Amino acid sequence: MSTRFTVFLQAAERRLRETAQAVGEALEHGGENGTGHEATLREELTKLLPMGYHITSGFILGSEPTISAQIDAYSSTTRCITQPLNKM
Question: Could you write out the DSSP letters of every residue in the chain?
């Protein structure tokens, strides 16, 4: 791995750790603390992706129709359906 990329990853790690510590100090409720950590991770991962991609959380709809359990983070393109099906 190149030295520049290593430095980049170390800076991202440092930001994640600092934000995680701040979230932990600000939020006492374990569930909200976890939600804050997930949001921070999604934000940092989104910065690494090419334009048109993003990291989000939610549910995956199947063809049955079935629905997945809640997913903390997944990658999608801006071409994915991002509105409720009943509004299409």
Answer: --HHHHHHHHHHHHHHHHHHHHHHHH--SHHHHHHHHHHHHHHHHHHHSPTTEEEEEE--B-SSS-BPPPEEEEEEETTS--S-GGG-
Residues paired with residue 58 on neighbouring β-strands, in sequence order: 71
* Backbone φ, ψ for residue 71 (5° rounding): -110, 130
Indicate the pLDDT class of residue 55, thresholds 50, 70 and 90. Answer: confident
Q: What's at 57, amino acid-wise? A: S
Question: Which residue range(s) make up the domain with 44?
Answer: 3-87
What total number of domains does the chain contain? 1
Neighbour tally for 55: CB within 10 Å: 20
| Reported pTM | 0.54
User: For residues 56 and 42, is the Cβ–Cβ distance under 8 A?
Assistant: yes
